[in-house]
Every structure is written in structure tokens, then in C-alpha cells.
Amino acid sequence: MSDKKIIAVTGATGAQGGGLARAILADDSGEFAARAITRNVESDKAAALADAGAEVVAADLDDVASLERAFEGAHGVFCLTNFWEHFSPEKEAQQVANLAQAANNAGVEHAIWSTLEDTRNWVPLDDDRMPTLMDNYKVPHFDAKGAANQTFIDQGVPTTFLLTSFYWENLIHFGMGPQKGPDGVYGITMPMGDKKLPSIAAEDIGRCALGIFQRGEALIGKTVGIAGEHLSGNEMADALTDALGFEVRYNDVPPEVYRGFDFPGADDLGNMFQFNRDFDTDFRGARSIEQSRELNPQLQTFAGWLVDNKDQIPIE
Ligand SMILES: NC(=O)c1ccc[n+]([C@@H]2O[C@H](COP(=O)([O-])OP(=O)(O)OC[C@H]3O[C@@H](n4cnc5c(N)ncnc54)[C@H](OP(=O)(O)O)[C@@H]3O)[C@@H](O)[C@H]2O)c1
Questions:
Q1: Mean pLDDT (whole number) for 63-78
Q2: Which residue of 167, 222, 270, 314 is most buried, as measured by CB atoms within 10 A?
Q3: Measured in angstroms, how far is the CA atom of residue 313 from the centroid of ligand 1?
Q4: 287-303 pLDDT per residue, tens
């Protein structure tokens, strides 16, 4: 039997966990083995991970017993929830509770929890600078994750809290790419004013997570924020202009306008951008590019990411 330390990776068929599984498999030191967790071991993504050398195991975040089985014998676990699948902060909190309980029962030596800020620590619910959403939240997909940090602490799980950043892949998959304006000029739209947004190539999140597992105990109990760059809307638009070969401008809109856009979660994202804009010193301060590069020497810049990915950005 291999003496590699097993890292059980939730979300392994997705962006963050997939990046970690691939980083483990590509790591020449061979310190770790990747155990990829998915609900559907028959999917193409699961098959690709198995072909690349990962052990593929079935479990569901809603079924704590399945997580306990999947975490058994693991040295480390990467814990990910996908808010956008159900849009329910309460369900997300329950899934985190299941992850923390399973990690505790399995006796893992190191968990990484992919989290975000509980923005209510900056903007309490009675603060009307931004609307309260779903009765109890300012930025539902952030707040539930931040509040759930305590679950890992209460369970006594040796945890590193990983603060992630806005993926550049949102330009490809999340409808945030350049849209043609009424004057025929393309634009990207974010209510960020002239403030800079920490952002990252999704694949780099998993590579940073591998760096955290490699450092082990030194980062247990710590919060580690990661970003590839901190970019203003104008800087993102300029980089897109250079990469795509036509003008892309930055449209700054007020957060209340963004919240009213016609797509699911627009209010949540409008509040998120407003939080990032209005508390940019704290938000950026928590996400060091230098530390991210130390954890992951392959850390990409936006311009570098565009060279490889610009053809995937939908342009209509
Ligand atoms: N987009 C951004 O800019 C951004 C930035 C920071 C943080 N985030 C956060 O990232 C999270 C999503 O991560 P991602 O982008 O890596 O996900 P993704 O690419 O959309 O993939 C979702 C992953 O979650 C797994 N999953 C979902 N529900 C599950 C369940 N009930 N049981 C087991 N596995 C389940 C899926 O596995 P199977 O389908 O194979 O079972 C899949 O691997 C969200 O919570 C979001 O808030 C996003």
C-alpha cells in the first residue's frame, strides 16, 4: 500500500477542488494522494480524475455518513460547498456542519475550509447601507460561509480557513464577460467605483491549497487569503482590450442598479461588490498576492490567464 498521505477533496469535479486534485497529481514530490469526492462517480469529470490517478469516491454533502466514509484514513480534507447550486445559506451551513463533523469523526490532521467573510461583522443587519437579503444576511453566499468557520472550531478540527477571491472564469461561465452596449462598444459591468477587486484564476486556488497542506501545522488555526491580482474595473477592461484586440470599457454602475439586474443572485452579488468596494482596505488586506505566490509559485496574472483563456470568453 502506498505511504502517501491522502487528501480527500470535496468539490473535486469543480473549479476549486479540481484544481487541488490536479495539483496533488502533478506534484513531483508525491507527498500526497488525491481522493476525489463526487456524488456521481460515473461522470466524465470523475472519469478524467480517475484516469489521471485519483481515487474517486462517492459522497454527498447532505449525507454526513457518506462523508465520514469518504474521509476515513485521510490525512487532510479540502472542504467546499457550492452555494450557487441551491441559493440557500441555511443548507450551506448544514453542509458545513456535516463536513466538520465528518472531519472530526475521521480524525483528520488538517482540514482546509474554503470560506469567505461574514459581511455582517462589517455591515450589521440593521445597517441600511445595503439591503438585508433572505431575512438574515447581507451577502448570503459570503455570510453563511464566514459564520460556519466557528463550526470547525467547535468540532476541534485542525483547520486552515482559506479566503478565496473572485474567479476570472466568471467572465466565461457566470455571464460577466464583455457585453455590447447601445453604442456598440463592449463593456464589463461591476459596481466597484475605482476600487480594486482581488481576483484569481480558479485553478490557482487548488494550487494554493496544496501549498497550505505542504506547510501543514504552521497554517493550522490560521486564515489565509489568496489572490492572483488586485485589479480595478479599468485595469480589467484594459487587459481585456489588449487580449481581445477590440475596445472593452469598464461600466461602473451603482450597487442598487446592479442588484436590480435580471439574473438569479443579482442582489447577492450587488451587495458583494458593494462590500468589496466599501471595505476594500480590509478585503484586499486579507488577500496577499505575495503569500499566494509563495504557496503557489505558478500563480497566474490576469494578462497571463487571458493568453490561455481569452478564446473561451463568450462574445456576442
Ligand atoms: N465564482 C467565484 O468567483 C467564486 C469566488 C470565491 C468563492 N466561490 C464559491 O465557490 C463555491 C463553488 O466552488 P466551485 O466554483 O469550485 O464549484 P463548481 O465548479 O461549481 O463545482 C461544484 C462542485 O461541488 C460539488 N458538490 C456540490 N454539491 C454537492 C453535494 N451535495 N455533495 C457533494 N458534492 C457536491 C460538485 O460535485 P459533483 O457534482 O461531482 O457531485 C462539484 O465538484 C461556491 O460556494 C461559491 O460561493 C466562488
A1: 98
A2: 270
A3: 20
A4: 999 999 999 999 999 99
Contact residues of ligand 1, CB 6 A cut-off: 10-17, 38-40, 43, 60-62, 80-85, 141, 164, 166-167, 170
Contact 144, 113 (CB under 8 A): no
pLDDT-based confidence at 103, cuts 50/70/90?
very high
- pLDDT of res. 2: 78
What separation in Å is there between the alpha carbon of 16 and the centre of ligand 1?
7
Measured distance CA(49)–CA(55) in Å, rounded: 8
Paired sense of beta strands 197-200 and 229-231, if any: antiparallel
Q: Ligand 1 atom closest to Cα of 95? A: 31
Read off the C-alpha cell for 168: 476570472
Alpha helices, H only, 52-118: 64-71, 83-86, 89-106
Angle between the N-to-C axes of helices 64-71 and 89-106, in degrees from 0 to 180, rounded to the nearest 10: 40
Q: Which residues contact 6 (CB under 8 A, 6 or more apart)?
A: 32, 33, 35, 55, 73, 74, 75, 76
Locate 305 and state its grid cell: 490567464
Atom of ligand 1 nearest to the CA of 17: 16
Closest by CA to 207, choosing from 296, 115, 110, is 296
Which conformational region is residue 134 in: left (phi greater than 0), alpha (psi within -120 to 50 degrees), or beta? left
Q: Per-residue pLDDT averaged across 269-283, rounded?
A: 98
Average pLDDT, rounded, for the chain: 98
pLDDT at 84 over 90: yes
Judged against a pLDDT cut of 70, whether residue 142 lies above it is answered with yes
